[in-house]
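Lecture 7, part 2: worked example. A protein chain together with nicotinamide-adenine-dinucleotide.
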Amino acid sequence: MLYLSERDVERILDVREVIEVVEEAFKALYKGRVLLPLRTRIESKKDGGDILSMPCIIEDFSLYTNKIVSVYPGNIEKGLSTIHAVIVAVDASNGVPLGLIEAGYLTALRTGAVSGVATKYLSRRDAEVLAIIGCGFQARTQAKGVGEVRKIEKIYAYDIVAERAERFAEEMSRKLKVEIEVVGTAREAVEKADIICTATTSNTPVIKREWLKPGVHINAIGAYTPNMREIDTETIIDAKVVVDMKEAALSEAGDIIIPIREGRYSEEKIYAELGEIVSGVKPGRTSDEEITVFKSVGLALQDNAAVYALLRKYIKELSMK
Ligand SMILES: NC(=O)c1ccc[n+]([C@@H]2O[C@H](COP(=O)([O-])OP(=O)(O)OC[C@H]3O[C@@H](n4cnc5c(N)ncnc54)[C@H](O)[C@@H]3O)[C@@H](O)[C@H]2O)c1
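Predicted complex, written out as structure tokens:
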């Protein structure tokens, strides 16, 4: 059985190929060729963390994966990553185990990739200013994912801990060759933005409707429990909202669940699932003025797709040696 480390994943995979395979996976989901139970979450209140188990089979890839992923928001203060993950991959045609993959970076990559797919279909084609709210681990691959599908000329970065935004700007301006300006408030970051990515561990909204430009597209990826949210109710009400999967969003996404609980939003108002958009069943953006929101809680199918791309490339590398 194979073992691939974080370093192997970083060396082998890049965000562009993950964007392609994640888009295929969402098409397969729409066509009913993905087996995807809701994930289970064990909340360890004593330790202030969550551990989730995320199984999936994508029939087109004949691949079963199960990711064990932990989210410990207090880790960052201890110099540890917030997220750690490991994936078991099994050949779904015969049940034979294929490998064990260290998957912290892979998780960030597939999350950046899904924002890339959503941005391709939902942002304005001429979008060039990106705002990043929350400059931790996910922020890096969010910027990469968006940068693959739109020509970004400027990034505004904001984090409640200014030093994290400074570090992000220094590292990512070099990697992406884009000017990054660190700003002192979320409002300053978003009011000039054509695209916004929120990648925080916040429980309360980090962006407000009144700050937004017409035509902005938002990828909200940080909140993944019913009580966490990054987007205010007014933005959800006014936007064309696309989710990764309705069932998951309605059980896990505070960004959607809290406005419903307040009696100001309803399930029927969700415009589409991403699979419907990438399959061409519903159009993505239809005007330059509309505000679009992609709410991602993160699906096991994204991990499965990224592992498929990883193993395919790794086996090709081996055969060329
Ligand atoms: N949707 C998905 O598929 C997906 C995938 C991976 C992670 N996540 C979630 O994304 C979130 C971020 O993950 P990470 O690995 O980048 O964590 P991280 O701890 O590395 O980064 C989070 C950053 O957000 C900042 N932050 C917190 N509250 C803020 C606020 N109110 N305003 C501005 N900045 C704020 C923190 O200072 C930190 O720099 C987590 O909640 C995680 O569970 C979602």
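The chain has a mean pLDDT of 97. The chain has two domains: 6-106+301-320, 112-299. Keep this in mind for problem set question 3.
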